[in-house]
Amino acid sequence: MMNSCNGQTSEPVVRPATQAGRFYESDAQVLAHEVDSLLARHAQSDFEDVAALIVPHAGYYFSGNVAASAYARLNPKKSYKRIFLLGPSHYEWLDGASVNSEVDYYATPLGQVKVDRETAQQLMAADSVFSYRPKAHDREHCLEVQLPFLQRLFTSSTVPEPVEGVEGVEGIIPIIISTNDFSKLERIAEVLKPWFTDENLFIISSDFSHYPSYADACEVDAKTGEAVASGDVGQFIATIEDNARRGIRNLSTSACGEFPIITLLLMLDLQCQVKHILYQNSGDIGDHDHSRVVGYHSFAVVRNGRTRINTEFSLSDEEKQLLKKIAYESIKDSLNGKSVAESRSLSRSLSLSKGSKGSKGHSSLLQKCGAFVSLHKQGRLRGCIGHFGEDTPLHEIVAEMARAAAFEDPRFLPVTHDELDDLDIEISVLTPMRRIQSIDEFQLHKHGIYIRKGYRSGTYLPQVADEVNWTKEEFVAHCSQDKAGLGWDGWRDAELYVYEAIVF
Length: 504
Description:
Elements: E1 14-15, H1 28-40, E2 50-55, H2 60-71, E3 82-88, E4 96-99, E5 105-108, E6 111-114, H3 117-126, E7 130-131, H4 134-138, H5 147-153, E8 163-164, E9 171-178, H6 182-192, E10 200-205, H7 214-230, H8 233-245, H9 258-267, E11 272-281, E12 295-303, H10 317-335, H11 340-352, E13 371-377, E14 380-387, H12 394-407, E15 423-430, E16 434-436, E17 448-453, E18 456-460, H13 472-483, E19 495-499, E20 501-503
Parallel strand pairs: 1-5, 2-10, 3-9, 3-10, 4-7, 6-8
Antiparallel strand pairs: 2-12, 4-9, 5-6, 11-12, 13-14, 13-15, 15-20, 16-19, 17-18, 17-19
Helix pairs in contact: 1-5, 6-9, 7-8, 8-9, 10-11, 10-12, 11-12
């Protein structure tokens, strides 16, 4: 680095390893062995296109195994251009994001990791919500503890000698996020989103429940983990708020990295899937006290990770009738007090049954795809609920959505026994969604529309166009206003997706 005043080479600015000997080992060889051993527990052979990880940041003794379960999902042969490290502030309230743009390297016992100062400075130039606050970084452990995993994972040498950088990575961008102003989190996500690409990796640092009993932690963390895995920022925020309202003894937070997680969820598009990997809490470690524990989850965000309906996907008339039977029986089972597990068992047995010719089973019903179930009574809508995620077998989705349409649609009272035989069931099996840049790409009657901005979203199925006399623009505007709550013109700066439906 050259000094601009006198042309002299200046010494690089290095942030020291402040947590070595506390959160992780200070001896390079011992640390390398520890990290390698943790990663070896979760060796992967089939790697996916990982866009981001959510990992804990406690001491390795407590959370190292959970962190390693996520890092092992990364392909060590893939070269990421940049690694963005997002974590919470344990030492200073920021009301925004602090980017460490003033150091050249982060040090660990394994060597120095280069900071991409240029990108860090670009973030600060893009929006005043980004700044540099030294106290937010000086002693902060949540980002530092991630570096030894990256150093060992992306190092070709097996010799644990200090090295400069992480191989194949131009630099890290250390970001501390601390604000409960949702509009500021949206701004942070908006600035970061152009970097959320195949060439970069995002690491989100967060522990989960803090200090409830072991049993309470398991319950709270299960709900929070489910919300994260949904990829829905609204569900995540609602879950955090619900946990706080329950008055659980000693629960100080459900996720200390709440704000970085929200930022990540705001950046996700519909081609990303959040996969849960592993859960443990400190009570699972040795003979640690079960009266006050901390929870640890790991997740991987995978691009194109959803199982797609292949181009030859179709449903026979027999399979369509089976799906309608599954929907009907699911509603009937619920009215008769049968459990979801019993209903699911029936749907699966029907899906695996032999076809009319006694050949192979109904394999299309085992495909993972989204679906909507609509209920009509005497020609009028009686309930409609759907699921876009391509993460569950079709027969299960239909059974679940049928129950939801009958009993959980907030627009209608729950279906009763007396109505059951008067219901007409319509099922829409959805093709994968495709993002569009202009409504010129949207075809009325052929495409459904899905509109998303922040935590607000809404959709109209393709067949809605057959029920109304709207133009293409009116169709999209009504969806924006009536379904997504974004206003008549809100779709213009929102994300737009189209999909098709097999309706029967």
